[in-house]
Amino acid sequence: MTAKGTHHAITAYAAAACAALALTAVVGTAGLVLQEQRTAEAVVRGESSLATLQSLAAVRERMQAQSQAWQAALAGEPAARERALEQFDTHGVLVQSAIAQLRDRDGLRDAQALAAAHKEWTQALSVKQARGEADPDAAHSQEQALLGRVDRLTGGLRDARKRAVELAAAERRSGLWIAGGALFLLAVGGIALLAGYGRRLVVAAQGAFGATPAQLVEAARRLAVGDLSAAEALPAAEPGSLAASLKAVAQGLRSTGEELRGNAHRLSAAAAELAAASAQIASDASEQSAAAAAMASTVGQMSASITQVTEHSHTALRISRESGELSDHASGVVASASGELESVAESGRELTEIMQALGQRSGQISTIVNVIQEIAGQTNLLALNAAIEAARAGEQGRGFSVVADEVRKLADRTTESTREIAAMIKAIQEGTGQAVDRMEKWGLRVSDGVAKAHGAGECMQKIRVGANEVVQAVDRVSGVLAEQSGASGQIAAAVERISAMSHQGVQAVGAVGGAAQAVQQLAHSLNALATRLQPDPAHA
Question: pTM score, two decimals?
Answer without folding.
Answer: 0.35
